[in-house]
């Protein structure tokens, strides 16, 4: 419920709690079990609902809500052919669901969830931002905040209630096909960007008409499969879990996220959906999470069908609910409802556990304002695809793109340059957006908006020089290499656009990070004629480009910059934007040489080395910056004290530009091996030529801490190093 003027948060919480308990006391067992059940839209859909004017089968909807009392619906019309829908159709659909819920005995609203992971991804023409890996590359939390604001607004204007975002898994396994849904390999960066997104999405009160609740996913360890394949085992010790994988979720809980989606796979042999220790001792006990947990897709039944931990589907339901799963994304039938009902009637799942789960779900529904909402919360006009939203998206795309190499300052190009554009990612919007865009896998190019330019189209719009394209209409189309070489001879420069097709989840599993051989064949043939080549890449993972990057005069890493990516990249190529993106991951030199920037000393000792193609935090500008004058407030501090630092950053070049200044910390000697450095603070500043700014940061005991021998977070006395740019300063933490 929305906060009323003069009403304290505690009073509001007390009021919600009273309403939850009063409603719970009136509910039948069937109504309670229904609240714990989430179904896919296809359960209430007509055949081919994605194409129907009215995709809802009214009888099926009424059966779901009035007879099965279901608490939540997710997804789009209609699995497996999910696709984007016009906003007015969404509003009619969600209104039809609200109206049926209003006919139920207790009028409990249905919570509608959607994967709006880079904007309202399933609403036609919505503002679609860079994906998370590219938002991380901006190093600009203000842009993450704006993305959260705009996404919530457009989701609510669509009539939808709940967003399955942000992904707070940490992206440290580059093979993993969901790497691009994370904020990269660094804990501090992921915590900062994810928290900013949540604050923008929630505002002061996520019941407000233009705000919506978020969902942390995928708790926890999902992103670190040993073999790199989606939904396969992770082997993570408790210290690594606490040091790298839990902080993002802890930050999300602290930021107020009321829901958590659970890891589809397993950690150390225990599937996420029956990990009582993770779901209760840590998430609720240590982190203080008060909301509800939701399973991922069909993962409770998979305890039986896939994981072989449950002897029957019935036992799978019992194990998951007793471990702490509050809502089941079933998703295609009422099996969970039927089995849990029976388990409750026999006493195998006690009513106390049912009531606990249902009260959590009802609490979030009250907190989201659903009981007060009888129609879509927000008008379309003034809240959907506004000028400010489009401008924020363009800015995010500009700041997300990374200039990794620029030999002899070949970039920016003159707008009179004659250019050959070739390569499989040059003329597609899909490759700049990735999965969860318009469709689940994001590949339906024919459904993409016609008014957003591809890279090729944006280049053609920018330049008065000759622009020739040699390539296909689809990613997989064979490119005529002989024709490309012939055309390259007739142009000043070649823009070679390589990368990946779209994907997400298990569909995106690959055997190797190496590029498709056909892309390398094209590149080698182009290089042979000796014309300058600018390599541009798009895709969600760091595919191995070492051979091509070494020969190219410039390298521009696009990752997944969203719908404005083509225009933004052209802005950078021709100098209308000064690039400022920085790598949120270490870009590997080869497929088996995967070392993080915050590696342990043993990983860079003797013959071992950290030798990526491009390091974490790397990104060039068309101007130059210099940091200097690093000073600490003290040489020695007491245990529990902060330490302040100051330094100057100056634009020493000839153009206005933005620079992200990063502060790293190293604990010189400790009882547990410590990384060679860890990012603890950063700030993006814009400076005119010759301008200088003094920056100040405070490092806290939390920044100096680590998970000790006894698995508790501690600060040990001793020497610490602070690193900014090329400077290092030292301080001592005294013994208590």
Q: TL;DR of this structure?
A:
This protein has 736 residues and is of the alpha/beta class.
How are the SSEs placed, and which strands pair?
Elements: H1 9-26, H2 29-35, E1 37-40, H3 58-67, E2 72-74, H4 87-101, E3 111-114, H5 132-138, H6 141-157, E4 162-163, H7 187-202, E5 215-219, H8 238-245, H9 247-254, E6 259-262, E7 266-267, E8 270-271, H10 276-286, E9 292-294, H11 302-305, H12 313-323, E10 328-329, H13 335-345, H14 351-367, H15 387-400, E11 402-406, E12 419-422, H16 455-462, E13 467-470, H17 481-489, E14 493-499, H18 517-528, E15 533-538, H19 546-551, E16 554-559, H20 565-573, E17 625-632, E18 636-637, E19 643-651, E20 657-667, E21 678-687, E22 692-699, H21 701-704, E23 706-707, E24 713-714, E25 718-724, E26 727-733
Ends distance: 47 Å
Quote the beta fraction: 15-25%
* Broad shape: globular
Instruction: Give the number of DSSP strands.
Output: 26
Query: Biggest sheet, open or closed, and with what strands and sense?
Result: 6 strands, mixed
Structural class: alpha/beta
List low-confidence stretches. Answer: none
Radius of gyration over all CA atoms, rounded: 26 Å
């Amino acid at each position: 419920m929305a906060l009323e003027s003069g009403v304290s948060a505690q009073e509001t919480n007390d009021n919600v709690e009273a309403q939850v308990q009063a409603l719970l006391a009136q509910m039948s067992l069937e109504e309670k079990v229904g609240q714990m059940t989430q179904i896919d839209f296809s359960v209430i859909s007509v055949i081919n609902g994605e194409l129907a004017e009215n995709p809802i089968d009214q009888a099926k909807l009424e059966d779901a809500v009035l007879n099965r009392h279901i608490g939540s619906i997710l997804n789009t019309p209609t699995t497996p052919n999910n696709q984007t829908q016009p906003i007015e159709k969404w509003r009619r659909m969600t209104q039809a669901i609200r109206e049926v819920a209003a006919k139920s005995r207790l009028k409990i609203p249905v919570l509608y969830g959607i994967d709006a992971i880079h904007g309202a991804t399933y609403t036609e023409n919505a503002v679609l931002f860079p994906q998370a890996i590219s938002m991380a590359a901006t190093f600009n939390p203000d842009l993450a905040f704006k993305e959260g604001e705009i996404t919530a607004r457009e989701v609510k204007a669509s009539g939808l209630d709940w967003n399955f975002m942000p992904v707070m898994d940490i992206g440290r396994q580059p093979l993993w096909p969901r790497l691009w849904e994370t904020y990269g390999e660094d804990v501090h960066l992921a915590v900062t960007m994810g928290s900013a997104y949540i604050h923008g999405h929630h505002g002061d009160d996520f019941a407000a008409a233009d705000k919506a609740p978020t969902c942390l996913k995928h708790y926890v360890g999902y992103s670190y499969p040993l073999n790199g394949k989606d939904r396969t085992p992770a082997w993570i010790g408790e210290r690594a879990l606490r040091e790298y994988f839990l902080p993002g979720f802890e930050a999300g809980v602290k930021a107020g996220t009321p829901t958590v989606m659970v890891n589809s796979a397993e950690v150390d042999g225990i599937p996420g959906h029956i990990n009582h220790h993770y779901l209760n001792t840590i998430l609720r006990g240590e982190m203080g999470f008060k909301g509800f947990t939701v399973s991922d897709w069909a993962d409770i039944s998979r305890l039986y069908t896939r994981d072989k931990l449950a002897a029957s589907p019935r036992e799978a339901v019992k194990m998951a609910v007793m471990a702490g799963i509050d809502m089941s994304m079933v998703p295609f039938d009422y099996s969970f409802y039927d089995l849990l009902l029976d388990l409750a009637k026999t006493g195998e799942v006690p009513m106390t556990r049912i009531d606990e789960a249902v009260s959590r779900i009802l609490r979030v529904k009250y907190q989201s304002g659903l009981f007060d909402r009888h129609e879509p919360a927000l008008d379309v006009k003034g809240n959907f695809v506004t000028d400010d939203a489009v401008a924020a998206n363009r800015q995010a795309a500009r700041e997300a793109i990374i200039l990794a190499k620029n030999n002899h300052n070949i970039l920016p190009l003159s707008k009179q340059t004659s250019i050959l554009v070739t390569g499989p990612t040059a003329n597609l919007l899909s490759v700049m957006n990735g999965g969860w865009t318009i469709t689940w896998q994001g590949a339906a190019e024919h459904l993409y908006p016609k008014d957003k330019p591809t890279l090729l189209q944006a280049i053609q719009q920018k330049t008065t020089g000759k622009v020739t394209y040699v390539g296909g209409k689809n990613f997989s189309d064979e490119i005529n290499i002989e024709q490309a070489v012939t055309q390259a001879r007739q142009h000043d420069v070649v823009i070679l656009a390589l990368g990946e097709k779209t994907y997400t989840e298990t569909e995106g599993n690959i055997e190797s990070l190496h590029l498709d051989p056909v892309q390398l064949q094209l590149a080698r043939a182009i290089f042979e004629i000796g014309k300058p080549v600018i390599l541009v890449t798009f895709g969600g993972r760091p595919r191995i480009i070492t051979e091509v990057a070494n020969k190219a005069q410039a390298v521009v890493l696009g990752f997944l910059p969203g719908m404005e990516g083509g225009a933004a990249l052209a802005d950078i190529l021709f100098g209308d934007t000064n690039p400022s993106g920085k790598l949120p991951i270490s870009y590997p030199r080869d497929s088996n040489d995967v070392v993080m920037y915050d590696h342990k000393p043993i990983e860079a000792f003797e013959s071992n080395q950290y030798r990526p193609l491009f390091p974490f935090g790397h990104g060039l500008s068309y101007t130059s910056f210099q940091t200097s004058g690093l000073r600490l407030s003290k040489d020695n501090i007491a245990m529990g004290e902060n330490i302040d630092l100051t330094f100057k950053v100056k634009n020493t070049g000839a153009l206005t530009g933005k620079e992200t200044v990063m502060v790293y910390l190293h604990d010189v000697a400790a009882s547990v091996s410590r990384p060679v450095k860890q990012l603890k603070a950063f700030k993006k500043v814009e400076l005119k030529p010759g301008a200088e700014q003094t920056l100040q940061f405070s490092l806290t005991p939390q920044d100096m801490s680590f998970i000790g021998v006894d698995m508790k977070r501690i600060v040990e006395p001793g020497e610490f190093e602070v690193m900014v740019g090329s400077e290092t300063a030292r301080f001592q933490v005294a013994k208590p």
